[in-house]
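Review form for a predicted model. The reviewer records the input and the model, then writes brief findings.
Reviewer: anonymous (R2)
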Amino acid sequence: RSPRGAHPTPPRLADAVIASELLESLTRPKSPPQTSSMHLNNLPPGFRQHLEKLNLPQHVQEPEVDDESEFERVEQGLRTLSGIPLPVADTSCGGGIFHARLIRRHSESHSDSSDEKKIADTKMLLSSFQLLDNDDLVVSSTRQRLLLECIRFGLVSLKSDKPGCLPREEAEKLLEKAVCQGDTLQGGWPWSQTPRLIVTNPPWLRIKDRFRGMEDGSKLRRELGEQLRSLADNGSPRFSTMRGNVNLYRLFIERGLQILEKGGHLRLIAPDSILREQSSHPLRQLLVEEHGWSEIWAIEEANHLFPGMTQGVAVLGITAKQETEKLIIHGPISRADLRRDQSGLSNRVPSFEMEKGRWVAWAKDTWAIPRLPRDRIERKQTLQILDRLACLPRMGELQHAIATNGHTVRVRVGEIDQTAHSKSIETWVKGRGSRPFIRGVHFSEDEDGQVFVRHPAFRTDIPSRANERQLAMWCGSMEPKYGPRLACQAIVNAHQERRLRWAVIPSGCVLGNSVNHIELHTEIQERLVRSHGTLEKALHWMCELLNAKDLDEWARAWSANNNVNNYELEMLPVEVSSDIPELMLSVQ
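Model under review:
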């Protein structure tokens, strides 16, 4: 499993992230802004109406940059003439891709500069690099890579001295100090000057994956977890947001913000599950309440950018130890939207501002970020659904209509772990004692979008070699036996349009752990039976509510990954129809 977390950063993405962080270059004389000779009011009325329908982004006059103060900042070592904020760091440098691309931009900016100016600015840039990694092979190869990049782009001489180039020996000494070996998470920061910008793509591994396959892996994992939890700075824990199966990139976010100076900026690439998963809630809360979470680039079809990637990617922009006024979400972003100039993104990319009141109403204080469609009309519809359903109580809350006498709806995973009980699960053979074993693959949809269970125990149209016939019969213990249950597919395939597939499972079936089901307290069951006559009828009524299109749209907006987890289902704002008098009475 571990290699799945090692995705090399695409240069195109690195260039776009860097472009968004660069300051205005001071190496070239400014050209006066070009003004259009045609005013919008001079255009024909029909053309103006068409432009209004397109809803194009408004042209904003960029604020004037005070060159005098910027040159002072260069003198103070806070930036280069080429526009790079200093010091610039990478807390998990890998191959040093970001700093390699910075070298390229720096060289391009100095294409027309004098030799003295170019050498001085290059020297200041290299002496302000801060790259750290815990592997000595990574450190040595990164130093070589950055040196070769400098030589390639005419900043460092290869052998004999060249005009406008730093001598190779001097560059090697600077890079030896710039790229160091150390543990970002557990050690100290080896440089005395705190960075103003960190750009990084840390490892996407859980602690449990770090030692997978090792003989004493469990012991090592436990020890590392204890070490990280015991770390403290000035009496407070270094990692205050550690929850569950800790992902290393979460720790790198928290640590990066500690290392940065106040007002410094962190740009970090992470899986987009961080925006919505429950275990990242404490980290999101930290970003909102103690720092300035200002920007998100949402890249959903990440497999076009990262070959083999099966999940979305988010590029976070956070200001350390300082509040920001707003959080802007850019996306969904495609590969073609990434730019090496301007702000790193095409003007076509839609953006959305998360207003705090709306955000809290939607996410119930979890600070989760919804997944929004790119199409303008679809986005508007999704936002309307989010606004409407956010006002309703969640299915697992006491305020919900189905809750009875303090008992709420609970969602549980299927009782059988398919790996642990593999010897008790076989291909379906019809017989008197056969017990259907229901897996996620058995949930299907017809042409009208109606969900049903496609299992050979209930249907005769399933081919003999079909996947639904394999692992479809339970041959283990006959106890306990279950009555009818309301269940949902727990793992969503990429080609599925629906996220929620609910169906009523008949009595006597056994559920695998790729299926979630609703657990109803006895008092809730009795109340539903009084309203509907039988439990099965009541479950079919609930199933219809849970398969509603708007609820599926809600679920897709808040999905963290392909797994439909229990918490996500319990937090569904299920809308109870007004034609159930007894249930509506409890709401009133």
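Findings: The first strand starts at residue 88 and ends at 90.
Further findings: DSSP finds 18 helices and 21 strands in the chain.
Recommendation: see findings above.
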